[in-house]
Amino acid sequence: MKILTVVGARPQFIKAAAVSAPLRRLAHEVIVHTGQHYDRAMSDQFFEELDLPAPDHHLGVGSGPHGGQTGRMLAGIESVMLSERPDRVLVYGDTNSTLAGALAAAKLDVPIVHVEAGLRSFNRSMPEEINRVVADHLSAVLCCPGPRAVANLEAEGITRGVHVTGDVMRDLLERALPSLDDAALARLGLTPRGYSILTLHRANNTDDAVRLSRIVGALADASEPIVFPVHPRTAHALAALGAGATGSIRMVEPVGYREMLALQRHARLVITDSGGVQKEAYWLGVPCVTVRDETEWTETVDAGWNRLVGSDPASIRDALADRPLPADRPDLYGDGRAADRIAALVACA
Ligand code: UD1
Ligand code: UDP
Questions:
Q1: Domain that holds residue 290
Q2: pTM for this predicted structure
């Protein structure tokens, strides 16, 4: 059986790195990289660090407005599919690469497997929400991280092909834990629990100058260093604002996966608007402050480890204070064996 895996953005290289090895034991995997992310620090470093096989096809689509970017991907994936004739198409998450992969497959009547199905923010102004709703409605096999995702799908009438597999990011995190790059702290002059780590890249945070300035301004007042591996989108937005590393904020280039996990593991707080980082903070037992008005990962909020603070500077400053940690941290999003389950589903579906 031939599987076409579509990836294009940083979190997809990470998720595919968990699934690719077990999948290749059961099926012939062909990888297409759309080129949505292309900086070395956003793409190649993850293929190398995580031993993800080099893409068989690279579409080189690059950046651009949603329609143009997604359209170029759609045309490119369609022509790869016409030459490769895969039996299934495997897509991850909720980016424009996910949407293009799902649309190309649906038009050629090839069954789609969607990993990270059923997540919802219930905010349709988020590009990712559109991508995940469409991908879910087109998919034959929907791999959910947990039961809430199943309930979200059911509420939209999707009940066939739905499986609770757990989250593949947990698999990879567990595999990486023994070899995290803890030396990163010393390189950055940080001490365990003596700093926080920040990531920001959501369009509604970066593309709104007022909102971005309020967030960065509130964090700059922190009494401890905040290390900030800056996503290129955010770097451009901050440059346009004329804002640099101010106050406590220490801007660095995007870091590798094991360095990022090490920086999260030893932080006092994780501050983010990333989906993946909210989950990693939870699994690592580090409290998370989410700079958004809503999250798809609501279980982490209910468990008391994640606080939604929006962009109000007073709420952000308040969230930086030390608080007692919740007594429990229930197992969420699987048991670290999601990739094996997904590989079996893909190969047998
Ligand atoms: C995308 C996904 C988002 C995901 C994120 C992961 C969509 C709609 N959004 O957001 O869901 O959470 O990836 O990181 O698919 N850029 C570079 N170099 C790169 C990549 C991007 O300079 O290698 C800059 C470009 O100016 C580009 C901007 O970042 O216009 C945004 O990139 P894009 O891929 O469109 O969206 P992300 O914000 O990365
Ligand atoms: N990540 C990384 N280096 C960084 C920032 C993030 O390796 O400088 C990892 C992070 O640990 C997580 C994934 O990238 O595994 C999350 O991707 P991102 O935040 O880009 O996207 P999202 O999860 O929001 O879609």
A1: 179-319
A2: 0.98
